[in-house]
Specification:
The protein is of the alpha+beta class. Helices cover 19% and strands 21% of the residues. The protein has one domain: q2cbj1_9rhob like domain (Jelly Rolls). The radius of gyration is 20 Å and the shape is globular. The site of 2-oxoglutaric acid has 10 residues, from β12 and β13.
Length: 285
């Protein structure tokens, strides 16, 4: 039978990388999803990072490595009452998820000293090689946190520059955020404003916050990650993330690195940094 051509319904925006159709986009008006491919050659990666303030390394971890990290996260949650509080320790989500048998954590700090698998992630050759390309030959771990952003209850993180919170000068550190789950707008993937890493922006109030200008708002980008991808971002890059209103967890391991030349400007003694090239296998005495 011939007839008038059928008109297809306009395609709905499909930003999800959570493996389900995103019927309704959660992407805010004005915000974009970063879809441009990342450079693959090392010199181009370094130039991209210096220009934009971030870089995604795709497929850093295999499924088997992710499974090992998953098992370690589950163990740390299960055994939290007998584990030491290292660096930032454990933080509970204010809203506990009644659907879970274990406590709902927002953050687990010091995981690279609590778990051999996370210790390996801290000195993962692909991550540290990329970091050395942009930071120089000697890098040290300053901070290690698992940000859990659990399904249904994970809270937003307002826009900020990390260096404004951190006691190091110059403000020139770099974080490697490795996704343990697929991260998309629906479950609160990181959002960034490219090219904002070249100057400090005044934050205000006790919570050190900022209000985005219209121009900044129009240049916000969600950066979706597949589990096993690593997002490198400069400590002055403006970033934040929305609540997780989805049914899918969004766990990321954030490892933040500095160079030895930075001056400690905090109170008391400088925290001990772990020099990455000196790192011995986990369990070495
Ligand atoms: O977990 C997130 O979505 C944001 C984390 C973050 O911005 C930070 O730790 O500085």
């Amino acid at each position: 039978m011939s007839g008038a051509p059928t008109l297809e319904a306009p395609a709905k925006p499909k930003y999800s990388c959570l493996g389900k159709e995103a019927g309704v986009s959660v992407v805010k008006p004005g915000a974009k999803v970063w879809t441009e491919p990342m450079p693959e050659r090392e010199e181009e990666q370094a130039a991209f990072f210096r220009r934009e303030g971030f870089l995604v390394l795709r497929g850093v971890l295999s499924r088997a490595e992710l499974d090992e990290l998953d098992a370690e996260v589950a163990r740390m949650v299960r055994e939290h009452h007998k584990l030491p509080r290292i660096r930032e320790g454990f933080d509970l989500e204010p809203n506990q998820d009644a659907k879970r048998a274990t406590p709902t954590f927002r953050k687990i700090g010091g995981m690279s000293d609590l778990s051999g698998a996370f210790h390996d992630l801290m000195c993962h050759p692909r991550i540290t090689r990329a970091l050395r390309m942009v930071m120089g030959p000697v890098i040290e771990l300053y901070r290690d946190v698992l940000m859990m952003k659990p399904a249904r209850v994970g809270r937003e993180k307002p826009w900020h520059q990390d260096s404004v919170y951190w006691p190091w000068n110059p403000m020139d550190l770099c974080s490697a955020m490795t996704a343990l789950d697929d991260a998309a707008p629906e479950n609160g993937c990181l959002q960034v404003i490219p090219r904002t890493h070249l100057k400090e922006i005044q934050h205000y109030g006790r919570e050190l916050q900022i209000d985005l200008t219209e121009e900044q708002q129009a240049n916000t980008h969600y950066v979706p990650l597949k589990a096993g991808d690593t997002l490198l971002f400069h400590s002055l890059l403006l970033h934040g993330s929305e609540p997780n209103r989805s049914e899918q967890d969004r766990r990321v391991a954030i490892l933040s690195y500095k160079t030895p030349g930075l001056k400690f400007i905090g109170k008391g003694e400088a925290p001990k940094s772990i020099v990455i090239h000196d790192v011995k296998p986990f369990g070495y005495v």
